[in-house]
Design a protein that fits this description.
21% of the residues lie in helices and 31% in strands. It is of the alpha+beta class and 395 residues long. It binds adenosine-5'-triphosphate (ATP).
Length: 395
């Protein structure tokens, strides 16, 4: 077990800044997922910790040791990659014990460690199987066992489940959580799968363009995103964004006005150019919103496309009937639309004109220019709750 600390780590490849002044501290025994768009620097961060690449600047600590210039084998880390490279001509026992034999452990110790690892990943009874006699999930467990026998201080896992089918991923997800609970080892885990990050992590580190945007527990990233990037990246479907200007009695956007007391919302001032963020599940039909604690004023909309998902219906709402109807990938580019999620038994159809309300307690305001979060949750004019001031994002 060990703490991992990156201090001002930057990695450049010619003109490309793959990791940009990263400062992060991962606690002993913590499970941290690195997430972010393709090319944001997740793998480079992992390789820097593993010692597979040297940072251009900065220092990497494992425990209290500066490992920046140590070889991978001397860092006490074990990596599990997406592409499982098992030796096809060796059975499970030999695949798992390969690294130990290189390090000249005696036969009894090798056997003890392999059996213990096989027990943890539930491969007992399969030690004489060949890789081509196993399923993808079983092969992935062999790869994890191979990492476990080394008894590392830190596991580095780079999309280890990416090649498995959806059902197996869910199964392996719970196995990894169990593994973490049993071993109590620090795990740093790269994934593109938000469900994996939300369910397994103690904290999620959100990275964009080589820069750490936020590192917090999953629900804090979801409910109190530090900036527009995190707000748009965490959660699927994405948060709705609508640009507006703060006025004396609320917020004026192109298509509607929200009434609240800006004086009660810390960090927001009249005349500010802000972006309102609201998740699809926090947009409600006015007729169903009686019990909302602080509903904002109703907004007239027309329903466009409906997407029944089984457990919910996604409803695309048009705010401005005159505006061209396009479904932009970037929600900031579609100010005339909102996405709403309603329960599957809702009586709703396409091309219906109705009124929706945004749950004031779930509205986020961001500074449009810097993207920084200003406030999470606004009170309506009768309310007294000033909302939550955002916590400082770590740099
Ligand atoms: N060996 C290399 N030489 C040059 N550029 C590289 C090298 N490795 C990575 N990069 C660049 O550094 C940036 C970060 O890459 P990295 O693989 O760390 O991203 P990532 O977040 O892991 O992406 P993905 O999710 O697609 O795996 C990218 O622009 C990539 O093209």
């Amino acid at each position: 077990m060990a703490r991992v600390r990156l201090e001002h780590v930057t990695k450049r490849y010619d003109d490309v800044v793959a990791v940009d002044d990263m400062n992060v501290e991962i606690e002993d025994g913590e499970f941290v997922c690195l997430v972010g768009p393709s090319g944001c620097g997740k793998s480079t961060t992992m390789e820097t910790i593993a010692g597979l690449t040297r940072p251009s600047e900065g220092t990497v600590y494992i425990g209290d040791t500066d490992v920046t210039n140590l070889a991978p084998k001397d860092r006490g880390v074990a990596m599990v990659f997406q592409n499982i490279a098992l030796f096809p001509h060796m059975d499970v026992f030999d695949n798992v014990s390969f690294g130990l034999r290189l390090r000249t452990f005696d036969d009894d110790e090798v056997e003890r460690r392999v059996e213990q690892a096989a027990d943890i990943v539930q491969l007992e009874g399969m030690l004489d199987r060949m890789p081509d006699e196993m399923s993808g999930g079983q092969r992935q467990r062999v790869a994890i066992a191979r990492a476990i026998v080394r008894n590392p201080d830190v596991f580095l896992m780079d999309e280890p489940l990416a090649n498995l089918d959806a059902k197996l991923r869910v199964h392996m997800r719970t196995e990894l959580q169990r593994l973490h609970r049993e071993l109590e080892t620090t795990i740093i885990y790269v994934t593109h799968d938000q469900a994996e990050a939300m369910t397994m992590s103690d904290r999620i580190a959100v990275i964009n363009a080589g820069e750490l945007q936020q590192i917090d527990p999953p629900l804090v990233c979801y409910n109190e995103p530090a900036n527009l990037f995190v707000a748009g990246f965490i959660g699927s479907p994405s948060m709705n964004f609508v640009r507006g200007e703060v006025v004396a009695d609320g917020l004026e956007t192109k298509n509607f006005t929200l009434e609240f007391d800006p004086a009660g919302a810390t960090g927001v001032g009249v005349g500010d150019d802000v972006t309102l963020g609201v998740r699809p599940e926090d947009v409600h039909l006015s007729r169903d919103a009686d019990d909302l604690s602080r509903p904002t004023k109703g907004v007239e909309v027309t329903t466009d496309v409906l997407e029944p998902m089984g457990d919910e219906i996604f409803v695309y709402l048009v705010l401005d009937e005159g505006a061209e109807r396009t479904m932009e990938e970037d929600p900031l580019d579609s100010p005339d639309q909102l996405l709403m999620s309603v329960s599957p038994d809702t009586d709703i159809s396409e091309d219906e004109t109705l009124e929706v309300v945004l749950d004031g307690s779930k509205i986020h305001l961001f500074d449009t220019a810097s993207g920084e979060a200003l406030v999470h949750g606004i009170a309506d004019r009768s309310g007294s709750d000033p909302g939550t001031a955002p916590t400082e994002a770590e740099d």
